[in-house]
Amino acid sequence: MPLKPWSGRFTQKTDKLAEEFNASISFDRRLYKHDIMGSIAHAKMLAKAGIITKKEADKIVGGLKSIEKEIDASKFVFTYDLEDIHMAIEKRLTEKIGPVGGKLHTARSRNDQVALDIRLYLRDEIKEIQNLIKNLQKTLVDVAKKNLGCIMPGYTHLQKAQPILFSHHLLAYYEMMKRDYERFEGCYKRVNVMPLGAGALAGSPYPLDRDFVANELGFDKPTDNSLDSVSDRDFCIEFCSAASLVMMHLSRLSEELILWSSHEFDFIELSDAFSTGSSIMPQKKNPDVPELVRGKTGRVYGNLFSLLTTMKSLPLAYNKDIQEDKEALFDTVDTIKKCIKIFSPMLQTMKINKERMLDATKGGFLTATDAADYLVKKGIPFREGHHIIGKIVAYCIKTSQGLEDLSVDEWKGFSKVFDKDIKKAISVEASVDNRKVKGGTALEAVKKRLKEIERALK
Question: Are residues 22 and 168 in the same domain?
Answer without folding.
Answer: no
